[in-house]
Amino acid sequence: MLLIHTLAMSTIIIAMLMILLSLALSKKNSQHADKNSQFECGFNPLSSLRISFSIQFFLITVIFLIFDVEVALLLPSILSIHKVKPVSWIILMSLFTLILIIGIFYEWNDGALEWK
Fold first, then answer.
1. Is residue 9 part of a domain?
2. Could you list the residue ranges that cross the membrane (predicted)?
3. Which of 26, 34, 65, 93 is deepest in the core (most CB within 10 A)?
4. Are 45 and 37 in contact (CB under 8 A)?
5. Is 106 part of a structural domain of the chain?
6. Is the per-residue pLDDT at 77 higher than 80?
7. Is residue 102 situated within a structural domain?
């Protein structure tokens, strides 16, 4: 038990010493801040990094992801048609698709798909 405590404490002490040593040896070079900044395609990085974009892009992305997940769920379910009654499988898949179609028509009627 004493060995475990000794190893744990020595590990913590060594880790703290390594952190303090790296902080002491690292040089903060603030006089050449431009040399340490990112350089991309020749553009000056000192401009604002936040670019505003339309919420319409976000809505289209969410709708795309919903229908992408629908395809990911429908395609593997084709393999299960032999394990259940085909009529119940068709009803279930039609209901699943109908719910998504109702959702897209709701978004369309709500005006979420119209660019302003």
1. no
2. 7-25, 53-75, 87-106
3. 93
4. yes
5. yes
6. yes
7. yes
Select from 110, 101, 115 the least CA-distant residue to 66: 101
Structural domain contains residue 33: no
Which range scores top for mean pLDDT: 9-13, 28-32, 53-57?
9-13
d(CA 96, CA 74): 9
- Total count of domains within the chain: 1
Q: What's the number of CA atoms in the CB half-sphere (13 Å) around residue 9?
A: 6
- pTM reported for the whole predicted model: 0.48
Contacts of 57 (CB under 8 A, 6+ apart): none
> How many Cα atoms occupy the beta-carbon half-sphere of 63 within 13 Å?
16
**Is pLDDT at 76 greater than 70 in this prediction?**
yes
The answer to whether 56 and 115 have CB atoms below 8 angstroms apart is: yes
